Amino acid sequence: MLALPKKELITFLIFAVVVLTMPIWLTPFGASYPGLLQKFAIYGLLAVGFNILFGLTGYLSFGHAAFLGVGSYAAVWSFKLLSMNAIPAIVFAVILSGLFALVIGYLSLKRSGIYFSILTLAFAQMSYNLAYSVLTPITNGETGLQLTLQDPRVLDLAFSERGAGLPLVELFGVDMAGYGGFYLSAILLIIGFFVAQKITLSPFGLMLKGIKSNQNRMKYTGFNIRPYTLAAFVISGMYAGLAGGLLAVTDPLAGAERMQWTASGELVLMTILGGVGTMFGPVLGAWIMKYLENIFSAFNENVLHNLFSFLPEGVQEVAVRFVALFVGEGWHLTLGLMFVLVVVFLPGGLMEGYRRFVNRFFNGKKPKPRVPDKQTQPAE
Amino acid sequence: MSDQKKGVSRRRVLKTGAAGLLATGAAPMIFTRGAWAQEFRNNPTGSEVVLGFNVPQTGAYADEGADELRAYMLAVKHLNGEGDGGMLSTMQPSSLGGNGILGKKVTFVTGDTQTKSDAARDSARRMIERDGALIITGGSSSGVAVAVQALCQEMGIIFMAGLTHSNDTTGKDKKRYGFRHFFNAYMSGAALAPVLEAEYGSDRQAYHLTADYNWGWTQEESLINSTEAIGWQTTKAVRTPLGAGDFSQYITPVLNSGADVLILNHYGKDMVNSLTQAIQFGLRDRQANGKNIEIVVPLFSRLMAQGAGENIKGILGSTNWNWSLQDEGSQNFVKSFGAEYGFPPSQAAHTCYVQTLLYADACERAGTFYPPEVIRALEGHIFDGMGNGPTEYRAEDHQCFKDVLVVRGNQNPSSQFDLLEVVQEVPRAQVEYDASIFGGELGPYEVS
Amino acid sequence: MDAILVQFLNGLDKGGAYALIALGLTLVFGTLGVVNFAHGAIFMIGSFVAVAFRQILTWESVVLSETELSPWGTALEIRTPYALEWFGDFGNILIDFSVPIAVLLAIPVMYLVGISMERGLIKHFYKRPHAEQILVTFGLAIVLGEVARTFFGANPIPQPMPEAVRGAADIGVLFGMAENAITYPWWRLIYFIFSLVVIGAVFAFLRFTTFGLVVRAGMSDRETVELLGINIDRRFTIMFGLAAVVAGVAGVMYTPLLPPTYSLGMDFLVLSFVVVVVGGMGSLPGAVAAGFLLGILQSFAAMTEVKEIFPGIDQVIIYLVAVVILLVRPRGLFGRKGVMET
Asked: Which of A308, B61, B91, B246 could make an S-S bridge to B56, C-beta 3.0–4.6 Å?
């Protein structure tokens, strides 16, 4: 049940070590603080889940952010109504987003290709628009759903008095806002990664890959593929719900923007950026996107002047001007350029780049040219 | 929280190559917190104090955010005794001496709110957790202000709000650690009503178009209350989706509804688009009930007025501050901002500049950075010379009470920045309200 | 009744805009098989052609006054537009008609933008998976938006329409109704007619020219056409240029209605894809029909009578229609089997 083939086991162990030591190796990158570490773990989990659907079946969902949002709302409501403990929040988040995914998946999977993509996009945008406006009593709209001093929290208040300030999310007494939240998310990410590996290797996973490479052949053999794709959709929706729940656990506020199409698009992009269908690629893509968003946007001219202070006055000014185009308020430009460059030069994402690198320098083999194979194209 | 995992020396950071190089800007700050025992988060123990400026740098309000950032950098200069000192010389009372805050040099870090609650909280957390920011300030929307304010309360960091106009910020969602200098929707309504009565009479039918989210609703509610109090009737209040772009389908029903005033509870791009399109539909050339149809934009901003161009002419609205004010504080500020950047500041820039000075002054008066003491120093503080006349930071809800400007789109602008003319400075007494009407609770001074 | 008629008009002019954007997108997809996420960005560039043209026309000579100071303490600037200095009254006319003139200007500019995009980037992606096309064109869209922001800022920039066509036309009178029963802005009527003309021109071009014949043949069976020894590549480049022109002029004409910002491309991106998919991927009549259908339904959904029955319907109508149509008709209104389904 828990066994993995040797090669996969090594991947898994390396992955686990990399994730758990993030607070150490991210320090020189200026990214080792709880807020961002949590985001790394959580968005990694989201990308792993998304890859189960997109990477294995080739169905490109453009509305996955909706499940993230549902998970967050469910978790915050659990804090408000029941208890500040993280466990019920996470359980509710996963269950509710799973149900939500079941409904949307059932309808959307009636179609394939771009028609499927647009259906998921439409459902997600409807959820977002309604959450932002008329559903405000449930979602608190623009501001986002947050805790208040008057929340009932029936389970907690049955055992203790209401404190003066807002309560903190905890798990067995550990505060979830700081490193506690990161380690919880990291452990769930590692478990999620393991489950994804198992799914990929299982007969079910092989079936999904079969659907991706040739749907028609599968159909002709008398196979009803929909239960399989639906299962993949729901599983991947539950991953997203778990990620959404964790977002709320580490920072108890659920904003409607989480469900917007740009958030779904971001998820698609991070997956492709890292490498669709690879185990580690989507996670890597997620980390890079979050790093750009949080660290690159923080460089202002002051920081740049300090950075280039070793240059002579005139050159320094030019360097700062130039670099300022790409960082701070220009971080979007860096993002856009990176997409273009990666796709042009590294089709298959960063993991493909890594493979080429290894092939060239360690195996002495020429990198295999990528054969555009219509048959194994992802089915968007 | 303060268990910094690994100490890394500056030299080692440099050695880690290009990526490490990028991080050096922030790395030294990692040290200023952590290791030493502290009685509150981000207690500045070195010779510097770090302020966190959280403004929209991307998205629809990027220009407004850029202007806020300019004002912050100017405030930092003035606090450190550089430049001409701006409002430092007009602020009364003032404990600021141009030698930083409590003798420590003021530095800053910046972040991008993207005008999204999530992103704004992320970047605020970075500034607090990594860069050791002592306060967070800035922002250009109420949703973000409320979200970041709640985070700051949890973390025990003071939040000095930037541009946020919803009643909720200092009403239902008010927080002990959050302070707002900017005015709010209630004040807009209360200030506009008497002017509207004088200009358009007391027998009017108002039609509201309202952006369909929290801020829009509070403004619609405030405006309906205050205009009905002067005898107007509300024909209809229609909600429009945020970012609708084309508002024609909402504007055409106004024409034959019998209403003779259209109130646009929109801000930013929505305001620019709906106002532009309403004028194209000939609304202001038409009559209803024997009167000219008028348009009112309750919350004006000069930056947005630029986007609406000609269409803004003659339209009434309210604003927190305008650079054409003639008092000494405003003049000083406009001069030093203009000398630095070559154009006059916006109201967003003004409120951010003032907030920074007020915080610094409160620390000086409290004699410490310890947040509960600084909060007590701000609560109930009465000051003058900051461009809005005598102003009070009300203790009950952390809202500033001051005169509100009713403005009109300038018919004959003398420059591309001279878009609004002040019709009336409505005195504070007319816009004041009881702190209890919006509910909410400030919460405790001490946080764990 | 009047209210319904007016909303129908609103729908027509909105639909015209949607149809124009979707048309270009479908042309690119149908001919080149490329999912172009940068199509909205092309619309945005078009609108900034109008902005740039007007800014050039209103370029001012700036003389710093030696005696007077501006209120913010710098030397007072005395500004005179060069156009007035050089051309006098004719300069004024030029400025007044900047938007219609910019349409003419946008045709060559957008054509160049289109073919350089195709030659420089898109052509390498014909045989790549759609996921990669999406990523690269999305990246391109971000880059184009940011470049526009660097030059023009994030604030909307107003583009007035010519003086002569400002204000609203009294349409009701034409149908024998009372005065002012139905008024509609001249510019929106012009936009609607303009969109019909452009759509008609594109269809005629494809229908009645040899070039169009080859392209249509290429759309349905590229390989056979290539076997016949026809250089389809060059024609496809031209088609991409044409699609850019269609989106670009649509953008120029839209500026008086919607002061352009750099995010315009992203704002229209999702919408244009929904329109194209509802119409059926690769179907030109489908794109046009879906554009008008969605425009009209969106207008009706905004009526308070409708909103009272379905709260929030105007927030979701576009997506709701997309869901219903795709569930009832598997390939949209006019989609062909097998296109973008695998």
From this structure: B61
- The mean pLDDT value for C279-287 works out to 88
pLDDT of residue C266: 84
**Type of residue found at C157:** I
CA dist., res. C205 & res. C242, Å (int) = 11
Euclidean distance between the first and final Cα of chain A, in Å?
33
What domains can be seen in chain A, in order of their start residue?
6-278 (1.10.3470)
Residues of chain B with pLDDT under 70: 1-38, 448
- Position of tokens 């305008």? B322
Considering only CB atoms, A343 lies closest to which of C135, C270, C331, namely C135
ipTM of this complex prediction, to 2 decimal places: 0.88
Which one-letter amino acid corresponds to residue C271?
Answer: L
Average pLDDT score over residue span A108-113? 89
Closest-CA distance, C134 to chain A, in angstroms, reads 9
A277 with A51: CB under 8 angstroms?
Answer: yes
Q: Encode pLDDT of C200-241 as tens digits.
A: 999 999 889 988 888 778 777 777 777 777 777 788 888 899
Q: Do B246 and C168 touch (CB under 8 A)?
A: no
Would the CB atoms of A114 and C340 count as touching at under 8 Å?
Answer: yes
Closest CA–CA distance from residue C56 to any residue of chain A (Å): 24
Provide, as residue numbers in chain B, all residues whose Cβ is less than 8 Å from the Cβ of A247. Answer: 118
pTM score: 0.89
Q: In angstroms, rounded to a whole number, what is the distance separating the alpha carbons of residues A146 and A80?
A: 8
Q: Is the pLDDT of residue A376 over 90?
A: no
Cβ contacts (< 8 Å) between C155 and chain B: which residues? 63, 303-304, 306-307
Write out chain A residues lying below 8 Å of C330, CB-based: 110-111, 115
On the question of a common fold for B38-183+324-402 and B186-319, the answer reads yes
> Beta B105-112 vs A253-254: how paired, if at all?
unpaired
Give the pLDDT of residue B37.
Answer: 38
User: Nearest to residue C199, comparing CAs of C7, C8, C336, C12?
Assistant: C12
Name the residue with higher pLDDT: C337 or C173: C173
CATH class, range B186-319: alpha beta
Asked if A173 reaches chain B (Cβ–Cβ under 8 Å), the answer is no
Residue A172 burial (CB < 10 Å; 0-12/13-18/19+)? exposed
Report the range of poorest mean pLDDT among A11-20, A214-223, A329-338. A214-223
> Given CB atoms, is C237 within the 8 Å cutoff of chain B?
no
Partners of A371 on chain C (C-beta within 8 Å) are none
Distance CA B302, CA B16 (A): 47
> Could you tell me the residue ranges of all domains in chain B?
38-183+324-402, 186-319
- Which DSSP symbol is given to A160? S
Beta-strand relationship, B391-393 and B382-383: antiparallel
Which CATH architecture group holds B38-183+324-402?
A: 3-Layer(aba) Sandwich (3.40)
C93 in contact with B at a CB cutoff of 8 Å? no
If one counts every other C-beta atom within 10 angstroms of the C-beta of residue B434, the result is 8
Assign A364 a pLDDT band (cuts: 50, 70, 90).
low
Neighbours of chain C (3+ CB pairs under 8 A): A, B
